[in-house]
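Study this pair:
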Amino acid sequence: MVCMPEQWPFQPYLRGAAFRTAAIGHHGLTPGRLRSRELDAPFHGVRTLGIRADNVFDRCLSYEPLLARNHVFCAQTAAALLGLPLPLPVRADTRLHVGALGGQGPRRAGVVGHRLPTDTPCVESIGGFTVTDAASTWCQLATVLSREELTAAGDFILSGRRESGGGRSGSLATLEQLRAATSRHSAGRGATALRWALEHVRGGVDSPQETRLRLTLVAHGFAEPVIGLPVLVDHGTLLLHPDLAWPNLRLVLEYEGDEHRESKRRFRADIRRREKFEAAGWRVIRVTADDLGEELDAFIERVRTILTARRAELAR
């Protein structure tokens, strides 16, 4: 009977970590131990233990041993780490975007390298990774996002994320910082789209769908609706903030994604919310993804009809 050589366990600190193959001696490993089925090789020269790498945080963690001192995550990768809303095709691209401050970006399978100015502002993202700041990242996205998608990302940067309990996380940048970054990018690719988006970004926005709805209405000739207007209901005892509103017509627009339908609690809350608006004398227009997609023409006509009827009603 042939006895197999005993496999020593990996050091506990290696689990959930990434390390360079050149450092195996430091970790008490042999070249043969690198062939263990427990280890993954996400990048040439790197091994990981217990990292799934099925999300951007784990992919960045897997690449971290290869980062040089002047390397930072940028563009789509920085945007994902900062939580910016990105369209599905962009999110589906698993390549990491790594910038070199004042140098040539890395060239490696699974990585898109970028040359960045030495003075590019950088911040720490969730997870502790160094990334280009939100305003710089926003400008870098101009090569892959439409002007409407850039506006949605800019809205998120100014607005922060809506948290449970009704509060918001802090904004990632100010409008002045977006202006300054756009000015620095004036000769770069996508500069025209950035300037357009800069004119249309707003604060207080809760979702990319709300941005898309607002931009769609304005593009079809409607006055720009107010975002998050405070509306008193229940005889002045409760304050609600509709997604969008035309105050002069006492008319609100509420975007309802699939989660509004799939969650029983949310569905019932939406019914009560609509009833409170209507009891306070406000008309509610409910908007779905279909209204902004294949049913857009019908939706625009419906809004025009409602506005005409509402003006006549309030003029009586």
The chain has three domains: 12-59, 67-200, 208-315. The first helix runs from residue 56 to 63. Confidence is low (pLDDT under 50) at residues 1-6. DSSP finds eleven helices and 14 strands in the chain.
